[in-house]
Amino acid sequence: MGLLITPTMIGQVVISGLLAGSLYALVALGLGLIFGVMRVLNVAHGPLMMLGAYTTFWLFHWWGFNPYLSLLITMPVLFLIGVVLQRFLVRRVVDAPELSSLLLTFGVSIALVNLAQLAFTSDLRSVEFLTGSFIVGPFALSKPRLAACAFAAAITLGAFVFLRSTRLGKAIRAVSTSPEMAELAGIKVENIRLVVFAIGSFLISVAGILFLAKVGIEPTSGMPVWIVAIVASLIGGSHPVWSFITGLSIGICESLVLLWLPAAWQPAIPILILLGYLLVLALGKAMSAAAARSRARQEMQHA
To answer: How far apart are the C-alpha atoms of 243 and 237, rounded to whole Å?
Structure first.
């Protein structure tokens, strides 16, 4: 006999998916920002999240640092790592075909994962901090996931205000729209790209802490999250609000689909969502082209 699915169960699954999707949204935010400005597919984004999580874990394990206050250390560390990666490696493939950046950052990601395995072993590590759930009526709200959602929403709002209201944010948008025109306007494009890659690495440190508190971390943990985040950033683009909404939507879809399908299907769900999105885009373009041809024929008949 199959599992009886009730409205309360569906509501709980939607809430859990919404809270889980906030982590995807946070990872997609930095990933989309880097791709929007530099056209670089940063495969190393997931392993950088892993490094941020390990930094938090060891600060907590050795000195008892509050995991959330450890952002004061992990953010600058990941920012500097981002500066080094962009300055010495990534900038060499910025104007090259996307495949070049994909291969370069894939190599960086493999190196980071292998170094982490040598340094930290493959054991799963986590922190016992902010555990349990809040009970609201018939629903349970996981405290780590609720914290992740609050952080993701606050950072997305901050990124939106930053890009719209600050001089640096406007320069970043200008470079994203047209690097050539931005250069003519006096914007130092190379410096903006350096800052953007560092900001993307800076943001991923927050996701690392939230992932550590929610699931735990081991050297390869970042890659599955990166796959979901790349889907969210491809659909949502570099706009922070759309990346946030897309990440939440993927989290909800994953949770709902897994009500009926085995958990082994979970890695395939983001890919299926992306394929569905591309199919809808292709159908939309085909319909627009057909409508344009129809209007052209009608105009020729009336001529």
So the answer is: 6
Q: What are the residues whose beta carbons fall under 8 Å from the beta carbon of 251, sequence distance 6 or more?
A: 17, 18, 19, 20, 21, 22, 23, 24
> Nearest Cα to 82, choosing from 202, 191, 193?
202
pTM attached to this predicted model: 0.82
- The model's pLDDT over 6-21, given as tens digits with 9 standing for 90+, comes to 777 888 888 888 877 8
**Which tokens sit at 248?**
């939440």
pLDDT confidence tier of residue 303, bands split at 50, 70 and 90: low
Please give the Cα distance from 43 to 236 (Å, whole number): 18
Answer for the pair 70, 56: CB distance below 8 angstroms, yes or no: yes
- Yes or no: say if 226 and 43 are a contact pair by the CB < 8 Å rule: yes
For tokens 């890919």, name the residue.
271
Instruction: Specify whether the backbone of 186 is left (phi greater than 0), alpha (psi in -120 to 50) or beta.
Output: left
Per-residue pLDDT reduced to its tens digit, 72-82: 888 899 999 98
CATH of 10-266, one of 1.10.10, 1.20.1440, 1.10.3470, 1.10.8: 1.10.3470
The domains of the chain are located at 10-266, 267-303
